[in-house]
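Exercise 7. Predict the joint structure of the components listed below.
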Amino acid sequence: MMQLSDVLSYTLVHATLRSTAPILLATIAAVISKQANIINMGIEGIMLFGAYTGYVVGYFTRSWVAGVLASVAVGTLLGMLVGCAHLKFKAHILVVGFAVNMLALAMTRFMLQQIFGVSGALVLPDPVSLPTIHIAALESSPVLSSLFSDYCFMEPIAILLVIALWLVLYKTSVGLHLRSVGLNEPSAMTAGIDIGRNKFMAITLSGLFAGLAGAYLSMGYSTMFVENMTNGRGYMALAAMNFGSGNPLFAMGGALIFGFMDSIGARLQSFGFPSQFVLMIPYVTTVVVLTIAMVSARRKEKAMILKQYRDGEKTVQTS
Amino acid sequence: MKGKIKLRPGFAAAMLFPFVFGAVLMLLLGYDPVEAYRELFKGAFVGNFNLGTTLEKFCPIFLTALAYCVTSKVKYFNMGVEGCFYLGALFSAGAGFLIQGLPWYIHIPICFLCGTLVGAVWAAIPGALRAYLNVNELCAALLMNYVAIHFANFMIAGPWSAKGASSQTAPIEKSAELLRIMKPSRANVGLFMALFLYAAIFWMFRRTKLGYRLNATGTNSYFTDYVGVDAKRMVLLATILSGAIGGFAGSIQTMGVYGTIIDGFSNNTAFDGMLASLIANNSFAQLPIYSFLIAALKSGALGMERFTGVPKALIDTLIPILILLLNMEGLFDFKHLRKRRKKKIAEIGKEGA
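Solution:
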């Protein structure tokens, strides 16, 4: 019989970071496009394409670098496709995003059947996987080695990328341009910022990171490819982005919550909870967290309006 | 919405391109595209069974497209129809085999009521969250699908399981089954109910006060608020209606097609419906055409796979491409391009002169 302390122990930190990483990478993709005021639904599909490409290319070239590069290339191309369809040909962004998702589902299934003759899951013998960072100095202590050692290198990189993205968005002129395009297009245009180029760049980068997230999913998080293996993670990333209202650092908080619930769920399963309820946990959490975030945002807004109103009254009285 | 179908320039090219693309793919893979498309056509339309299967697939796609279309009128992107569809199917199946010994004219309405109500309630949750708390409906509704699907799988595998080899519930009572038309296919009278519902909703949006209010909310919610129509309530109402239609579609699927509910029976039906609505540009008048097109492709693909070995997934690949192309304005606008070229030539000519 397992104890509750087995569920909530120090090993949870590692598990949480592991299951956060794919959502976090996708969250970066969501945040970048959101800053240009584009909701890129296609992240889910691009991730799936990235996962497939990375896994297969990695297997055939025997090199994880090639796999990751291929995923990123495919992601970037798809991002450009989405950008082209949306910006040049004025297709509705949700339609494009959703079409990409459907395309990814059908096409990966098609390629699994045609190339490997399997349906469902593709488990290749001896697949390549992303290297992990093993710190030998910590081997003596199980607690420390669980906390700091044996991470896939993508997991710390994802966190660093979020911080870097925050710096770029809020501390550089490139980020300022991008944000101003998203906040107020006419003003940005007046200031001489190329709107089309900024938006296209945002969507392309968003595709790039979604591809990277896919590569991590099939080569780091697990070492196989399963049909629809993203399983709504792209949508969760969009929810995390919403939770942080576009700010990468707050969005990371959202992604961490989902990752945490995901890893807790995996442990509760061994407690005898029905697996379906365990699988529900991250989705329910997402909706609840989104609601709480919106309620608190509203409260803040109301307080601000009230404050403005009172300040206004004061000035009227004094004058 | 005028209800008049106006084809964009380049419409035919956008419709044709995916099939040409598919043919090229088939040639590359060593299949005969002419044979494959002939089987696709046969599989969709020729014979009672094939046409019946198309109609059977048409019914849920059409209804879920309708469900999506209703909410799109109030500018609410309802990706949660799939969840309503699942729960509607689940609860009408529950009512179908748990309640026994009723005559069909009482039992069938009860089952429909169960499915429809559950669907409405389920859709109302993200609807209310969006209307009153401004929670993004894209995420909320979409993620609730997963909750609904996992819950349905739990009920199918657990409490309501038929305890057989495959994961499904006990078959519903004879008194809850819908009459089948066009045997041996599984098309059923649910089709007529769907068409009737469609007509009713079309009429509601065109001719009644409520429909006008819903339309106005979508066009300008500030205006509706100003003239005294509660825009928030209108959004909530539209989602409830949409969920009810989704649940109704699920009920038809259980009572007419499967007679039970099987693990993963839907396979993204509601998303096909959503895509149909999106290609139709959310116009009620065009919904049936595109829903039928997608249903025919899906059902024809089965025949194609059976007789020529071309995998069904190929057709599933072509459908999103079709949607993408149809949604891109002016991609195949050759007339426009030609005009531009002529203009250029004329300009160059002038310069030369």
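Discussion. The interface with chain A takes residues 29, 77, 126, 129, 133-136, 138-140, 142-144, 146-147, 150-151, 153-154, 157-158, 268, 271, 274-275, 278, 311, 313-314, 316-317, 319-321, 323-324, 327-331 of chain B (CB under 8 Å).
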